[in-house]
Amino acid sequence: MSGGVDSAVAAARAVEAGYDVTGVHMALSANPKSYRTGARGCCTLEDSRDARRAADVIGIPFYVWDLAERFDRDVVEDFVAEYAAGRTPNPCLRCNEKIKFAALLDRALALGFDAVCTGHYAQVADGVLRRGVDEGKDQSYVLAVCTREQLRHAIFPLGGTTKAEIRREAERRGLRVADKPDSHDICFIADGDTRAFLAGRLGSAKGEIVDEEGRVVGEHEGAYGFTVGQRKGLRIGTPAPDGKPRYVLDISPVTNTVRVGPREALDVHEIRGEGLVGLEGPLPARCQVQLRAHGSVHDCEPAVSGGVLRLRLLTPAQGVAPGQAAVLYDGDTVLGSATISSAAPVA
């Protein structure tokens, strides 16, 4: 129970369905005051109190489990290391993979529970993950790193409901979190300034910003502060010859160089992915791929060989960065996922 409306209603529905439910709030920081609060939080003291009050209304036992050390190692440190390596991670996806459906689930099963029930907007049946019916809230993308075995022990009571319906239901149930704003951005970056957070962990590392021809057009304080597809915050003093905006095309942590260019240079048609989850069996000749949470879906032709996923996109995608997840779908059904290792324009 995160302290938000979704997990509160999920718990209430699980009770109504006849399950023996215990509410658990994950304490993910040794210093919760350093995490986001109010409309932007999800792991704070305020959220813990909201979760406890919701459990009291529902009438279930409630506990706080300290997973701060595991969260710092598997999510926060991973986040920093990925940016330092020139990749763009998704910490919410990593939290699902390493914390909610690994550390939390493992402890729950060891204590005799059968499943972890969460407020995610997704559906699962017989270990197969599907999109939630609310297209704007669907969270199947960030759950696609879960294995079929983990999904066998997962319950998502909200998958067939819209967010608006959940808020109305919470109000009917007398849950004070009915109107609580959703959490946004990264919970462990209190002020939302990712670049400053990384600079505090990695220090300043001046380098060059170059154009497609390798000409120096600016300087930066650390290549880790950029991501492929980024337009704002480049602070380039030299305008492009055609006067059009520049975008980050590539990041090289070895040379500490950021390469920029026109928007059309971001187009990619081929993607390579590693760290496959759920893609062991034969794949359809064509399917769809989603490359970021709530991002566009692209038709593609997939192939797996030697533990590597290769995708040929039938329509180009932009802003594809190593470290992001490529999640494959057949309609609303999740086929599996891979971590993007490289992307290239059409040959």
UniProtKB/TrEMBL annotation:
Primary location group: cytoplasm
What does the protein in this record do?
Catalyzes the 2-thiolation of uridine at the wobble position (U34) of tRNA, leading to the formation of s(2)U34.
Outline the extent of the tRNA-specific 2-thiouridylase MnmA-like C-terminal domain: 284-340
Protein name listed in UniProt: tRNA-specific 2-thiouridylase MnmA
InterPro entries reported in the protein's UniProt record: MnmA-like, MnmA-like_C, MnmA-like_central, MnmA-like_central_sf, Rossmann-like_a/b/a_fold
Annotated site (Interaction with tRNA): H120, Q324
Give, as one word, the top-level EC class: transferase
The alphabetical list of record keywords is: ATP-binding, Cytoplasm, Disulfide bond, Nucleotide-binding, RNA-binding, Transferase, tRNA processing, tRNA-binding
The residues that hold ATP are M26, G119
Catalysed reaction(s)?
Answer: S-sulfanyl-L-cysteinyl-[protein] + uridine(34) in tRNA + AH2 + ATP = 2-thiouridine(34) in tRNA + L-cysteinyl-[protein] + A + AMP + diphosphate + H(+)
In terms of NCBIfam families, this protein maps to: PRK00143.1, trmU
Q: Does the keyword Disulfide bond apply?
A: yes
Name the source's superkingdom: Bacteria
Q: Where, subcellularly, is it found? A: Cytoplasm
Residue ranges of the tRNA-specific 2-thiouridylase MnmA-like central domain?
196-261
* Region named Interaction with tRNA: 137-139
EC no.?
2.8.1.13
Family membership noted in the UniProt record: Belongs to the MnmA/TRMU family.
Q: Carries keyword Transferase?
A: yes
Q: Which residues form the active site?
A: C95, C187
